[in-house]
Amino acid sequence: MIKKFIDEESGKIVEKSVMNAITIDCVIFGFDNGSLEVLLIEHAEGISKGKWGLPGGWIKKEESIDNAAYRLLRELTGIKDLYLEQLRAFGEPSRFPLDRVITIGYYALIKKDMFNIKAGFTASDAKWYGLNEVENLIYDHNKILEYSLIRLRSKVKRAPIGFNLLPEKFTLLQLMQLYEEILGVQLDKPNFRRKILKMKLLVVLEEKQTNVSHRAAKLYMFDKERYEMLTNKGFIFEV
Amino acid sequence: MIKKFIDEESGKIVEKSVMNAITIDCVIFGFDNGSLEVLLIEHAEGISKGKWGLPGGWIKKEESIDNAAYRLLRELTGIKDLYLEQLRAFGEPSRFPLDRVITIGYYALIKKDMFNIKAGFTASDAKWYGLNEVENLIYDHNKILEYSLIRLRSKVKRAPIGFNLLPEKFTLLQLMQLYEEILGVQLDKPNFRRKILKMKLLVVLEEKQTNVSHRAAKLYMFDKERYEMLTNKGFIFEV
DNA sequence: CAAACTTATAGTTTATTTGACTACAAGGTT
DNA sequence: AACCTTGTAGTCAAATAAACTATAAGTTTG
């Protein structure tokens, strides 16, 4: 597709192609043992062969961008049940060395206990990294990761998306530690309990923890229906 | 550029082009006489000729997406001093009737008193619309507008971007009305004053309003340097 | 088996913030 | 001069958040 532009220096009308290569790159977050991790892959082909970066891929003509992101995650992890949100488009002309490639960043939150990584046919390896173990990634992937963290931190305070990182059943301490880890703050146990329970978003279960070397904590579940009901009434989640 | 994909039904590897046409569309907000407005343009060419939509255009190969958005706004309004932020990419395959076109949405906040609209060579007319005067726009532009409003509302509470819609010098009532209009709430004058002044972000000027038929209010200016200084110390703007 | 230890959970107290409201000041208009 | 509109200062009760104390319910250790 060729379109007309005004050349800013000469003022003349020039014709240029407006076709671009577009990729998707996704930051996948997991929570394990009290720390936040991201899933990185080692590229198996092309100029970035052998280097680590975010999982990603190309968008097909007939699918929406969101669907492309879902498809890529399905190919990589096999899970269908995850939280996925677009970050934004990253389009510095220099971000990709060979051609102009615009990428659309996503981030996903998954329950780590629920799946196995399949490296897939463009990756030779896939591995979880703690946030401060991440070193130099390909292209602008460090920048995308950084941006995803900012978004995650701001979103997690205003919407109950944190639950997507925990198992179905969790204790209040686990939930608190999740918030502590993501937000990088220290929280007070009794105060956190009170605050989160007052929202009435959690269902307390009969079950308790097992195999712990201390008093077993009650297990809770997030009540999504109740959340939506409350939201419609004007309730705003805020930690 | 041709890439390989796994066909999900047959499991075979197929080759597809990954080139896409990408545009930029921008929601431009202005504030006038107590109400929030958006700048729309009437398209002068192509299949949408005669219809109203968001101002937009194509991205050149050698410019970043942000720069493309700046360039388009400059071409349209002539202003260089504005607030600009990317929303996200919109890429439903059906959003554009002829081809697959992915668009990257932006929103801008401008001081309406500072500029004149130039319709430009792809638009036959440009006009400010109050938010509830906006009717059916081309493509998915209503959706982009809706999304921009959600973003504006959430952002304006957490960052002092609202000032970009006001003249350099403004009264506290003007500022309060801006927040009332954007957030759709009623605020209490004394309480709003106290809250906003406590942040120490405003410089009070010697000047007062003129030509008003009531007690003249003091004029204030936003102190950007002070804002950045406070932010570095951990201050968080919140209305 | 009891003491020590760890985490869970309940409750108290104080400081801070928010929200609603009252009162008066400072102009211009009639 | 009376009145109207908006600006500005101050008060007070209610709600919320933050810091802290205390106790309960288990495990582990000696």
TrEMBL record, chains A, B:
Source superkingdom: Bacteria
Keyword Iron included in the entry's annotation: no
PROSITE patterns, per the entry: NUDIX
This protein's UniProt keywords: Hydrolase
MF term (GO), any: hydrolase activity
Domain annotation Nudix hydrolase: ranges: 21-152
Pfam families reported for this sequence: NUDIX, WHD_NrtR
Name listed for the protein in its UniProt record: NUDIX hydrolase
Originating organism: Neptunitalea chrysea
High-level lineage: Bacteria, Pseudomonadati, Bacteroidota, Flavobacteriia, Flavobacteriales
